[in-house]
């Protein structure tokens, strides 16, 4: 039986990989948290706190592995137990050299960070893309054999940043491909201005959080406010700042179904957060540090939740392809290797941290 290794990261990335694996029962599927074979990076991970806010950290690995164990999924951290026929990546910022002779597929997992002048320098000098300190170069390395994009807009974006157009297939993005399903929910609050924060400070980016909070209060203009904190944030600090700078009665959540909260809001304020696409898909007025018109162009396609099935079809086709990697046609494979069956439904538990 051919073996597939799925690379996980955040809970969002991990549940996406789980959905794809569920569509591939005929293969031996294993999972590993994102890792690097680079000695220097591993020293930084193990001996310092510099990367503690990233999915390379032990904290994120343990969260993902707890999820994998709960669902009886096979774990092979750092790919040490098996030789694999295919590796499915949630990022191409780190692709260990020993994986590059194996068939590889990249899956878009969320929004791509703003492309900055420093991103251009890193790319031009062919420096490790992790030096950007964000995801601005995710999907742009052209290292993987196939790239699964959330939308036609993102396909154009990745092509413009250097990934070969022939490699990129618009499959949709699991977790963000059937957002209308969240309209009917049991979240008890309605008709508030919602603020979804970002873990910028935890990932070494500059943020004036107090100014952002005050801007949200101004936008709300007397309407009720609800803040949903990013799962990677320092909750105690964030809550203290919010309560000190917002009207009495402001709601703050560190847990819960973000998509349900967005479905029930009247307006959505974000920073750099993929959940802005939920607001766009549900017709909400949205605010973002990105250009909103550009976000609407990039927004993930809504395909009734078949993105994982589309990606699985490409995996199946690639594993059945006997020619060299460059001769594989992922567009044809997505159509040819579909297996029609009811879409796996995520439970409330699985989507609680989106």
What does this structure look like?
With 354 residues, the protein is an alpha/beta fold. The chain has 2 domains: 3-177 and 301-351, Rossmann fold; 179-298, 3-Layer(aba) Sandwich (Rossmann fold). The protein contains 13 helices and 12 strands. The strands form 2 sheets. A 7-stranded parallel sheet has the order 3-2-1-4-5-6-7, with helices on both faces. Strands 10-9-8-11-12 form a 5-stranded parallel sheet.
Q: TL;DR?
A:
By secondary structure, the chain is α/β, with parallel strands linked by helices. It has two domains: 3-177 and 301-351, Rossmann fold (3-Layer(aba) Sandwich), CATH 3.40.50; 179-298, Rossmann fold, CATH 3.40.50.2000.
Topology:
Elements: E1 3-8, H1 11-22, E2 28-33, H2 39-47, H3 58-70, E3 74-75, E4 86-89, E5 103-107, H4 117-124, E6 146-149, H5 152-160, E7 168-170, E8 193-196, H6 209-220, E9 225-228, H7 235-245, E10 251-253, H8 258-263, E11 267-270, H9 276-281, E12 285-287, H10 292-298, H11 307-319, H12 330-336, H13 348-351
Parallel strand pairs: 1-2, 1-4, 2-3, 4-5, 5-6, 6-7, 8-9, 8-11, 9-10, 11-12
Helix pairs in contact: 1-11, 6-7, 11-12
Keywords for this entry:
single chain; 354 residues; alpha/beta; Rossmann fold; 2 domains; seven-stranded parallel β-sheet; five-stranded parallel β-sheet; 13 helices; 33% helix
């Amino acid at each position: 039986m051919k073996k597939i290794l799925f690379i996980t990261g955040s809970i969002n990335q991990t549940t996406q990989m789980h959905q794809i694996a569920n569509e591939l029962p005929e293969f031996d599927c294993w999972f590993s948290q994102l890792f690097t074979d680079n000695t220097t990076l591993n020293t930084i991970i193990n001996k310092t706190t510099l990367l503690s806010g990233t999915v390379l950290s032990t904290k994120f690995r343990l969260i993902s592995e707890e999820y994998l164990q709960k669902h009886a999924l096979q774990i092979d951290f750092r790919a040490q137990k098996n030789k694999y026929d295919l590796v499915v990546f949630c990022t191409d910022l780190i692709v260990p050299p020993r994986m590059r002779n194996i068939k590889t597929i990249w899956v878009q997992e969320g929004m791509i960070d703003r492309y900055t002048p420093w991103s251009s320098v890193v790319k031009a000098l062919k420096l490790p893309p992790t030096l950007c300190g964000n995801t601005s170069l995710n999907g742009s390395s052209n290292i993987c054999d196939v790239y699964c994009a959330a939308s036609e807009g993102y396909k154009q974006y990745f092509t413009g940043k250097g990934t070969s157009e022939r490699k990129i297939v618009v499959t949709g993005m699991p977790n963000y491909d059937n957002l209308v399903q969240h309209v009917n929910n049991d979240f008890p609050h309605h008709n508030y201005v919602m603020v979804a924060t970002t873990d910028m400070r935890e990932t070494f980016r500059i943020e004036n959080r107090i100014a952002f909070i005050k801007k949200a209060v101004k936008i709300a203009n007397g309407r009720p406010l609800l803040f949903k904190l990013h799962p990677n944030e320092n909750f105690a600090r964030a809550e203290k700042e919010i309560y000190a700078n917002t009207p009495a009665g402001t709601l703050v959540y560190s847990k819960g179904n973000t998509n349900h909260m967005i479905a029930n809001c009247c307006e959505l304020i974000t920073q750099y957060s993929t959940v802005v696409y939920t607001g766009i898909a549900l017709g909400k007025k949205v605010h973002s540090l990105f250009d909103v018109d550009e976000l609407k162009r990039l927004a993930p396609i809504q395909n009734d939740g078949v993105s994982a099935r589309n990606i699985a079809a490409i995996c199946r086709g690639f594993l059945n392809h006997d020619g060299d990697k460059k001769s594989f046609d992922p567009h044809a494979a997505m159509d040819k290797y579909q297996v029609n069956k009811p879409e796996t439904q995520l439970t409330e538990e699985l989507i609680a941290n989106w």
